[in-house]
Amino acid sequence: MTDIRGRVLQTSRDMFFRYGIKTITMDDICRQMGISKKTIYQFFEDKNQLVEELVKLTTEENLRCINGFVNEAEHAIHEFVLMMRHMSGFFSDMNPVMLYDMYKYHSDAYGVFRKYRDKEIYRVVKQNLERGIREKLYREDIPVGILAKLRIEEVNMMFNPEIFSKEGYSFVQVQMELMKHFLHGIVTLRGHKLVNEYMHTYEMEQ
User: Fold this and answer.
1) In the prediction, which pLDDT does 167 show?
2) SS3 51
């Protein structure tokens, strides 16, 4: 039975990522899986609970990856690039309307996401900035708390359908430009050289 629950979560995630949350019903998920609504309701009280559990699972998985990058990275800029690559891979196939749907129609799930963003992501970004200062890759005079919040808002902005989607920019393109702008605003001369090297390598891979 627990395997069925896991399949429901995976199928739901695939469908929500492709079409957004609002347009997908519990009936749609059941049809996709070939199971009855009675089966799915053994695990989830309603769609709200399903979305909330999916967000919890997804944020936990992402946090494990991000924490791993902290230990894997050679320095702060390398860590930043690893996180960016992870985000590109995770979000490039996600319909931007998904976060809007969550915000508007599933407040409990959005609350889980907002807590993850405002607590965990803020912590990771702040620690990255502090690491970069210690390594003399970021300027020592940068306001760490302010810039950590700025970086979070840049990520939020990427998912706002009113800002970029009408212009035809891809998620990866927007993220790349915002990240370059952010890093070049905080790095030292030594850090500037590293950023250019990483950006050149990344662009060659695309």
Assistant:
1) 66
2) helix
